């Protein structure tokens, strides 16, 4: 299964990538929202994992583009954010995300969530 990970914090991005690749997921990485959009135009993903606050385009803007443009519209979308207040979660879900995960989280917690999304575990 193919995953796009868009996270501007390099250390966190590498940790998530290593965790997912250890489970044999194919993962493309983007360091900002614009780079994520470039990947989304070239590939089809089963899951898109987005950081809320990224340079160039925010996670919300990327979600809106995915849902509006239709390419990858069937991909599941998970938003990662340190903004964990209920109104922020509601905003993310209203924009079109399927899942929300508050930072900080453990790599195993993220992996459990990804496995649940992609395999119904």
Write the layout of secondary structure elements.
Layout lengths: L1 E5 L3 H13 L3 E5 L2 H10 L4 E5 L7 H11 L6 E6 L4 H10 L3 E4 L4 H13 L2
Parallel strand pairs: 1-2, 1-3, 3-4, 4-5
Helix pairs in contact: 1-5, 2-3
How would you characterize this protein structure?
The chain is α/β, with parallel strands linked by helices. It has a single domain (2-114), classed as 3-Layer(aba) Sandwich (Rossmann fold), CATH 3.40.50.2300. Helix content is 47%, strand content 21%. It contains five helices and five strands, in the order βαβαβαβαβα. It has a five-stranded parallel sheet, sandwiched between helices. α1 packs across α5 (107-119). The radius of gyration is 13 Å and the shape is globular. The two termini are 15 Å apart.
Tell me the name of the CATH class.
Alpha Beta
Give the biggest sheet: 5 strands, parallel
Count every beta strand, where a strand is a DSSP E run of 2 or more residues.
Answer: 5
Give the integer mean of the pLDDT values. Answer: 93
**How many independent structural domains?**
1
- Give the terminus-to-terminus CA distance: 15 Å
Helix share of residues? 40-55%
CATH topology: Rossmann fold
Rg: 13 Å
Organism: Mesobacillus foraminis
Protein name: Response regulator receiver domain-containing protein
InterPro entries: Bact_response_regulator, CheY-like_superfamily, Sig_transdc_resp-reg_receiver
Domain Response regulatory: 2-118
């Amino acid at each position: 299964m193919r995953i796009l990970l868009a996270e501007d914090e390099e250390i966190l991005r590498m940790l998530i990538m290593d965790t997912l690749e250890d489970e044999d997921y194919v993962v493309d990485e983007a360091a900002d929202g614009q780079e994520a959009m470039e990947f989304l135009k070239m590939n089809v993903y089963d899951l898109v994992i987005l950081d809320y606050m990224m340079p160039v385009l925010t996670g919300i803007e990327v979600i809106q583009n995915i849902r509006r443009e239709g390419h990858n519209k069937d991909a599941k979308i998970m938003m990662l954010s340190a903004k964990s207040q209920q109104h922020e979660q509601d905003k993310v879900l209203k924009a079109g995300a399927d899942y929300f995960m508050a930072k900080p989280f453990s790599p195993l917690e993220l992996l459990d969530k990804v496995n649940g999304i992609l395999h119904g575990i």
